[in-house]
Predict the structure.
Amino acid sequence: MEGIDPRITLPNPELVKSAREAALGSAIACGIEIEDAVDLDAIEEVRSIVRTIWGPEIVPPRNFLKAITLAGSCVLLARRNNETVGFGIGIVGWDNGLHFHSHQIGIVAPERGSGIGFALKLAQRARCLAHGITEMRWTFDPLLSSNAHFNLERLGATVIDFHPNCYGSRTDAFNTDDVTDRIRVSWKLDQPVGLITPTSSPKGPALIETTPDVCRSFESPIAGAYISIPDDYQRLRTNDRATADSWRVAVGTAMRDVFATGLGLCGFGEFGYAVSGQTLERDSR
């Protein structure tokens, strides 16, 4: 068809239908309703829950959230019995191909692990596919094992790259003036959603040493190497900040070394991140 941007994929009606059904089923399974936050009252609810979860530092301005909705992008609220329990914020981007950037998803503390985060991701997916967008990207802290399991195993996202200190210094409730190293991932929305088998035990060298102190090992990054992380980094950071900082430096150095040599990460398991033989190739339209 003439006049259609080649980066845009026309929606697949059957895929859109199944995505909407999956999103609704996931929301029902955890007892919530998900809606688009469009009016100012709903936008204020989003700001309030961001403040509850992270504190006041990163609460987005009201006019910015309104601008996202006016642009037709995605601000979501999750409610249970009229009580706000989660939210999702994302924007459309076009760097290296049209995609949706899922900037932030947050769940109130008592509800974490209940499936609300998964339901919000499926809701974002359904809205993207309805507009012909078949890729979602976002960032997460590589030292948070629960996020790595969720993003790389539960959703099946693929690691694109590593951004050292991506957001600069932050003193919100989660980051507590920590270095904001981030992994960026890509999730193919037109593929089936399901559990991904964890990466098998590594056969290559360990890029992190843990005895007598945590540090970057002398091993070179090669396919099959692995990068271990602590089981509960946030608790470690609270109880032993010096050791947590050592993990941050060691893992960040290993990640930089991996991507600097043209390699990538191909999965996550009980041992940590597995190093692949090549980075994700991407169309640079």
